Amino acid sequence: MRPLLLLLLVAGVAAQSQLLNNAPDCAVKCVRNTSVTGCAATDNACLCASTAQGVLLQCALGACDDEDDRNDMQTLVGRVCAAVVRSFPEEPVVCRC
């Protein structure tokens, strides 16, 4: 396998689990609970869709008593979802490889 392709695959897997792996303990059940968001815990694109993101944050903010945990979750969701948006360019990218 080409090194660049392997690097992209590894980066994709790491990004996919970012919400799940970095959520405060009190919010992990909200990320994992597919009945809450309708998304797989590793599907950041789905979790960052506006409706699912709102439901996820609502669940997490209700599950976390500590203000630092609530703030950390909001920051994490904002950072991960901003990366998801940047990873889908508006114009198709054509590789002339």
TrEMBL record:
Q: Which residues cross the membrane?
A: none
Residue ranges of domain CFEM in the record: 1-97
- Pfam family membership, one: CFEM
Looking at the keywords, is Repeat present? no
Entry keyword Secreted: yes
Q: Record's Gene Ontology CC terms?
A: extracellular region
Name assigned to this protein: CFEM domain-containing protein
| Organism (species) | Exidia glandulosa HHB12029
Record lineage: Eukaryota, Fungi, Dikarya, Basidiomycota, Agaricomycotina
